[in-house]
């Protein structure tokens, strides 16, 4: 049983791609901007929600049965290095110019790897599969760091622990 605790300083974030048009579009961005690892990230959030449905019988205040519903994977990344990489992970070829018709949306896997340097044999990895960026925000405050923030949706998530 793993008992190692981690902080954000122990983490790295990497983009990996799978074969296919969406993966090829993401690979082009990952290679151009060296997104392994993604640098200057200040926060990553991964949310997995299960749309649990309760069945209530007439005359009963408590649910009689809970049924699992759709599972959704969403999240966000905040980054202090503004170079267009995260925006291009959303827009693909449309990040350079406006295409006339439909275009391929980049799709990638996001690997969140944690390893405490004091416990080198233990690590934890969360891999978010089939990620597509759904929203990009650019924040330029008067007296703080300029940040970009992306929100994403994904197909599924897996975890792995070692040590």
What report would you give on this structure?
Helix content is 12%, strand content 43%. It is mostly beta strands and 163 residues long.
Short description:
The protein has about 160 residues and is mostly beta strands.
N-to-C series of helices and strands: EHEEEEHEEEE
On the 0 to 100 scale, the average pLDDT is 92
Described by the principal axes of the CA atoms, the overall outline is: globular
* Contiguous helical run count: 2
| Terminus-to-terminus distance | 8 Å
Query: Structural class per helix/strand content?
Result: mainly beta
What does the largest sheet look like?
7 strands, antiparallel
What value does the Rg take, in angstroms?
Answer: 19 Å
Range of strand content: 35-45%
């Amino acid at each position: 049983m793993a008992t190692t605790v981690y902080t954000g300083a122990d983490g790295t974030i990497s983009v990996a791609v799978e074969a296919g048009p969406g993966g090829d579009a993401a690979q082009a961005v990952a290679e151009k901007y060296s997104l392994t690892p993604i640098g200057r990230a200040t926060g990553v959030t991964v949310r997995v929600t299960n749309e649990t449905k309760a069945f209530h019988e007439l005359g009963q205040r408590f649910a009689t049965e809970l049924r699992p519903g759709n599972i959704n994977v969403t999240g966000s990344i905040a980054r202090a290095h503004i170079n267009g990489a995260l925006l291009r992970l959303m827009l693909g070829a449309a990040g350079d110019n406006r295409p006339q018709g439909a275009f391929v949306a980049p799709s990638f896997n996001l690997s969140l790897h944690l390893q405490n340097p004091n416990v080198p044999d233990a690590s934890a990895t969360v891999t978010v599969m089939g990620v597509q960026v759904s929203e990009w925000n650019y924040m330029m405050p008067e007296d703080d760091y300029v940040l970009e923030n992306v929100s994403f949706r994904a197909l599924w998530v897996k975890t792995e622990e070692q040590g």
